[in-house]
Amino acid sequence: MAQLSDLVNLDLTDSTTKIIAEYIWIGGSGMDIRSKARTLAGPVDDPKKLPKWNYDGSSTGQAPGEDSEVILYPQAIFKDPFRRGNNILVMCDAYTPAGEPIPTNKRCAAAKIFSNPKVEKEVPWYGIEQEYTLLQKDVNWPLGWPQGGFPGPQGPYYCGIGADKAFGRDIVDAHYKACLYAGINISGINGEVMPGQWEFQVGPAVGISAGDELWVARYILERITEIAGVVVSFDPKPIPGDWNGAGAHCNYSTKSMREEGGYEVIKKAIEKMGLRHKEHIVAYGDGNERRLTGRHETADINTFIWGVANRGASIRVGRDTEKEGKGYFEDRRPASNMDPYVVTSMIAETTILWNKS
């Protein structure tokens, strides 16, 4: 008699050419990831060759009940680490039947910015540091923390090892390998300052692909925590008090910044970022005011400062960039629950397209 795990891991390649495509989209809250699967006649490696699909937007907070159909447009394909074989994950964005992007579709506006010839010429690179917190499912309290109590103070947990310092490493490592399998350009992982908090990095990725890859990496993480019976939180300050919050620092460079003389380009770009500080803060995630307090490696939310190797700044420039006279900068303001389509495109818009005059 076959066990459930045998059927879940069943290899279909010997019995059929058909594949399963898991269509992924972002729900009405802007952070709830949804997905459903369909059967396709055979392998597909180009999103343009995938059929559009629809879903009930009234059940995701994205359409009224009397006109509930929302259309999914396939945009990016990844290998499916759960079903494996030729099966795929498909990142989609959502439109009305008339072809208009729905209000929660932030990818469409981002794609327009990234397709601007001035932006394309600069080949913007992104590296996003996604922090998150693992929670015990039934009590909504960080993994490894005593129920209703607190662990020892911060200090030994950042990049720590050992059963009393690192909580959930099996989930983190499974996610790391699953992202590599999927074709996501995940570049690393580490334990964070608060126990039960971790980080993974996606990038360097060019333009719109940074958003696609981060959203699918989040999807894979949620699926793995589902299997593990653990909850993942992207709240920017999950535990009040003397505990670090969770961010999504965005490392950024353009072709001009990466070439000789790039440091001057970087400084001019940072000046523009400072002039639009308030607009960026509004777009950088909900609840960020609980995180950006001027403590715990953050700048105050109402203040814009930048510096070299300063982790208490809004924007940090690395020592290597200063020394070599070219490179990248790190925007430390985005919250862990930010929308990468919004953040990456806004940084490109401000530094490449926006004119302060």
TrEMBL record:
Sample GO molecular function, one term: glutamine synthetase activity
Keyword list, A-Z: ATP-binding, Cytoplasm, Ligase, Nucleotide-binding
Predominant cellular place of this UniProt entry's protein: cytoplasm
Compartmental location: Cytoplasm
EC number annotated for this UniProt entry: 6.3.1.2
Residue ranges of every copy of the GS beta-grasp domain listed in the record: 19-99
Pfam families given in the database record: Gln-synt_C (PF00120), Gln-synt_N (PF03951)
GO biological process entries: glutamine biosynthetic process
Domain GS catalytic: 106-357
Reactions it catalyzes: L-glutamate + NH4(+) + ATP = L-glutamine + ADP + phosphate + H(+)
Family (UniProt): Belongs to the glutamine synthetase family.
Name used for this protein in its record: Glutamine synthetase
Organism: Helianthus annuus
Source species taxonomy: Eukaryota, Viridiplantae, Streptophyta, Embryophyta, Tracheophyta
